[in-house]
Amino acid sequence: MNVIEILGQLMNTTLVFSTALIFVALGGLLSERSGVVNIGLEGLMTAGAFAAAVGADYAARSGMGGLTAAWVGIVTAMIFATVFALLHALATITFKANQVVVGTVINFLALGFSLYLVKNLYDGAGETNSVEMFSKYAIPGLSDIPLIGEGLFTAYPTTYLCIVMIAIVWFVLFKTPFGLRLRAVGEHPGSADTVGISVTKYRYIGVLLSGVLAGLGGATITLTTTGTFSHNTISGQGFIALAAVIFGKWHPLGAAGAAIFFGFAISLRNFAQLFEFSQQIPEEFFYMLPYLLTLIVLAAAVGRSRAPGALGEPYDPSKR
Amino acid sequence: MESPEKQYNKALGKGIKIFTKSSSLVPIVAIILGLITGALVMLAGGYNPLVAYGALFGKLIESPYDIGETIRAITPLIFTGLSVAFAFRTGLFNIGAEGQFVMGMLGATLIGVKLDLPWFIHAPLAMVGGAVLGGIWAGIVGYLKAKRGVNEVISSIMMNWIGLYFANYVIGTWLSEKGQQKSNEVHESASWSIGWLSEMMDHARMHGGTIVALICVFLFYILLWKTKQGYELRAVGLNPDAAHYAGMNVGRTVVKSMFIAGAFAGLGGAFEVLGVFGYQTISSASPGYGFDGIAVSLLGGNTPVGILLAAILFGGLTYGSGGMSFEADVPTEVVRIVIGAIIFFIASHGIVRMVMKPFSFRRNKPTDGSKEASRT
């Protein structure tokens, strides 16, 4: 295999792994911009990955074609993950519970429920049936360009959706009144409340959207990478996405860039066996790499970014 | 201007304080609500919750063997519960007890397999090895927080995965026969098993770690409430700024607290190797005791006795779930849901207060806990 081909493939797998991370990071970003810390992204992703497998499986069994079934899976995932996000919102916004603890509980519950339902639906098995995954779609013309043709223009439909999503989130957050209000609620809820913006409403929307997007991210993993759901389908990606939000300075483009960086680290291990020198390095170190890089990146200067002003703080109107 | 990391940490740390205070009624109502949630989930899944809970609690006292194994299941939860709670007291959320536990296992396995010493040195040394390795693993998280402002929640999750793969690597390379998925057995001289007690309990895996766990509960109390160091640790937990102005070294306290927390978790891991299994396996996921430790610490209100009781409850639920799946065919994950629900209700104590309202004579002010949290 020549260098161009390897680079093209590396680019391509990076994109595959980044897609899910970007979706989840965008979700986390919306929640955090509204002032709610979302440690539960991992759990929301797990719920999404599970529901995608089940949704696609049941749709296929009821006679839908592979591609339609996969899209049914995606929708199921977004709904199921949003249920858990609703739980998160209820506890942290309405009942003013500690956001970090509730996030941890969401991780706990989402995994518990998903595995329980897997056993319940598949007669005690620890894994769902395999479902038909998305296939890569090559953009005619562009995909014939050497290097980037294979690297960027031959991708899963979810990757294209993801690029659109980055643009949508950016536009909504910075160019619409809705986005302004969402940010206001996270930055200074007291002032927002004074001018008649409902803090509760916008925070609910922020957290629920994080459920939708994290569910989509989880579904992406099931429907492009694993094809089934089991206990370790989601293993830390939610937390990596959260790190991407921080590393990306709570900005959609920054978060997406950071997610691509982490996606690259994850995809590296697939290429470990290709080269003479990298075969010397034990496999475990490649597994460690994304987590190690996340740690290093966070420890090295993150630059002058600023967290949303009221992040982590339940809003109490009586102390305005 | 404050650094962004600092602001973020502050945001994450807000409200942790409420968990250092507890009223005894909230946990009890939360447990009941949690069990009801589990029952509803079982009903929805087409199982009979009464039969299932009957099987669960019946399993715990079915035979001497089961009683012994229940104690065996409770022991690591005491350690990880203490670990999470100790960090909580210093205002830190140690979600990394999982990785520290794995590193504790590794430390004990290393010393147990590689060294050959008389038992009275070997066994304690293997135990200390686990504690130190767990402590270092957590200490790194504390250091990154103190010096680089990295939020401990994210860094300790990353350390969990790094620890898991690192342990797999060390076992695979140095501690096992080729192609084996587990390490060699630790030497007899490093073992903490109590032979005569196991004999008495129908070969349940009884070990000295349980006694060490109880000593640690006591130590937890002494360290935090009866020493100068403990006073500093708690002061930093309650108000880092005030502690700083009073002349305490907040950064050093953070590292120290994390080290001790990690040592508790590491001890738990060490005894799993030295007392229960005698070896460590290469696995794709960590054993989960660290995450259960978070539940134990929250339910126990971060008090020594509370942690002990919570560990008994969650350890019992976890061990009993085996009987539940065997006799009533209910997936063991129901217990995860029950534990998750209990913590959910503890965290959202507003819900619990709402449920309790009709039953109480005095009207509780519904917002006092949360006000406390948001003011900090």
Automatic annotation (TrEMBL), chain A:
It is found in: Cell membrane. It comes from the Bacteria. This is Simple sugar transport system permease protein. It is a multi-pass membrane protein. Pfam families: BPD_transp_2. GO terms for molecular function: transmembrane transporter activity. The chain crosses the membrane at residues 6-29, 36-56, 68-93, 100-118, 153-173, 204-223, 284-302. It comes from Paenibacillus methanolicus. InterPro entries: ABC_transp_permease. GO terms for cellular component: plasma membrane. Keywords: Cell membrane, Membrane, Sugar transport, Transmembrane, Transmembrane helix, Transport.
From TrEMBL, chain B:
Keywords: Cell membrane, Membrane, Sugar transport, Transmembrane, Transmembrane helix, Transport. One of its GO terms (cellular component) is plasma membrane. InterPro entries: ABC_transp_permease. The keyword Transmembrane applies. It holds the Pfam family BPD_transp_2. It is found in: Cell membrane. This is Simple sugar transport system permease protein. It is a multi-pass membrane protein. The keyword Electron transport does not apply. The chain crosses the membrane at residues 25-50, 70-88, 95-113, 119-144, 206-224, 258-279, 291-314, 334-356. It comes from Paenibacillus methanolicus.
